[in-house]
């Protein structure tokens, strides 16, 4: 098994993953993962009751791919990916295993892994990033920004994030991370966080932040507690199950905060705006 990849190889993987949608004739989200799997020589896929979330198995002439699921059965890759067959997490795991195919040499026999050395976790990180490119390709995301926001990136807000989650059939953290990569230079006075409660602690899982807030708020530490990043956040924001709006003073700067729950998972979006330099909204 491949353990790591040099950075230049990782960049090639990201570039290739970002254009897979066009290779299979996809013109709009969500991306058809079954078509991409066929393109990457994955001949068989299915659900299995297993510990890992996903497994890629090299076989003669290509690969087999399996996803964790209590209902064990094979999937028909010869069809278009059925709507809502896979959860957002399973779609990410599917894309992650597709990304692993880039770390094997093409062969008519059993594909052989590219032999490189290093920390095994680095390869998994690279495939996570590549999975985001597969699910939310740069060009398709820019097209949605142009279509939905008239090309004005300052209008990116929590409502737009949720709309893209539904359209691309990807999780909020994937969408937010892809927005960071595709529109990394946003100067708007707005911060959008994905927060997850883990063992009673509200942790930051993803962030898209306009640079004009950096004078009042530091860059969030992903996987760090919200309270460590922004001590003035009321406990009602992080501890309650519902949503709401609050006004908070940070130093001498007034900020507005809105919490948007994301269903039964307990995750929520936290949007912070500066009313003195209010960014436009997507609505």
Structural class designation:
alpha+beta
Q: How many domains is the backbone divided into? A: 2
From the alpha carbons, calculate the radius of gyration and give it in angstroms.
20 Å
Share in helix: 25-40%
Low-confidence stretches: none
Could you tell me how far the N terminus lies from the C terminus, measured between alpha carbons in angstroms?
A: 48 Å
CATH topology of the largest domain: Beta-Lactamase
Going across the major beta sheet, what is the strand order?
Answer: 8-7-11-10-9
Report the order of strands and helices.
HHHEEEEHEEHHHHEEHHEEE
The 3D shape can be described as: elongated
The chain-level mean pLDDT equals: 92
In words, what does this structure look like?
This protein has 10 helices and 11 strands. The chain is α+β, with helices and mostly antiparallel strands and 283 residues long. The longest helix is centred in the middle third of the chain and has 16 residues, at 120-135. The strands form 3 sheets. It has a 5-stranded antiparallel sheet with strand order 8-7-11-10-9. The chain has a 4-stranded mixed sheet with strand order 2-3-1-4. The model has no long low-confidence stretch (mean pLDDT 92). Helix 4 (88-100) packs across helix 5 and helix 7 crosses helix 8. The chain starts with 6 loop residues before the first helix and ends in a 10-residue tail after the last strand. The protein has helices at residues 7-18, 20-23, 33-39, 88-100, 120-135, 138-149, 158-168, 172-182, 226-229, 235-239, and strands at residues 42-48, 54-59, 62-68, 73-75, 104-105, 112-113, 190-198, 201-209, 244-250, 253-261, 268-273. The chain folds into 2 domains: 7-135, Orthogonal Bundle (Arc Repressor Mutant, subunit A); 143-277, 2-Layer Sandwich (Beta-Lactamase), CATH 3.30.450. Helix content is 34%, strand content 24%. A hairpin with a 2-residue loop joins strand 2 and strand 3.
């Amino acid at each position: 098994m491949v353990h790591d990849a040099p950075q230049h190889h990782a960049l090639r993987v990201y570039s290739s993953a970002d254009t897979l949608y066009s290779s299979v004739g996809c013109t709009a989200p969500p991306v058809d993962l079954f078509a991409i799997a066929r393109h990457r020589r994955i001949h068989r896929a299915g659900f299995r009751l297993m510990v890992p979330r996903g497994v890629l198995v090299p076989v003669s002439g290509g690969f087999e791919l399996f996803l964790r699921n209590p209902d064990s059965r094979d999937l028909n890759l010869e069809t278009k990916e059925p709507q809502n067959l896979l959860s957002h997490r399973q779609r990410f795991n599917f894309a992650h295993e597709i990304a692993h195919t880039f770390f094997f040499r093409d062969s008519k026999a059993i594909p052989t892994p590219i032999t490189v050395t290093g920390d095994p976790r680095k390869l998994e990180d690279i495939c996570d990033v590549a999975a985001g490119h597969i699910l939310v390709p740069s060009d398709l995301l820019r097209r949605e920004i142009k279509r939905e926001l008239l090309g004005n990136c300052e209008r990116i807000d929590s409502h737009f994030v949720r709309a893209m989650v539904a359209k691309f059939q990807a999780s909020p953290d994937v969408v937010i991370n892809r927005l960071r990569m595709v529109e990394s230079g946003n100067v708007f006075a707005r911060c959008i966080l994905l927060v997850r409660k883990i063992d009673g602690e509200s942790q930051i899982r993803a962030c898209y932040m306009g640079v004009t807030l950096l004078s009042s708020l530091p860059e969030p530490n992903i996987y760090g507690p919200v309270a460590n990043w922004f001590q003035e956040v009321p406990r009602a924001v992080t501890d309650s199950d519902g949503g709401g709006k609050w006004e908070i003073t940070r130093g001498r700067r007034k900020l507005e905060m809105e919490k948007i729950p994301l269903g039964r998972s307990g995750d929520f979006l936290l949007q912070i705006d500066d009313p003195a330099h209010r960014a436009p909204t997507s609505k």
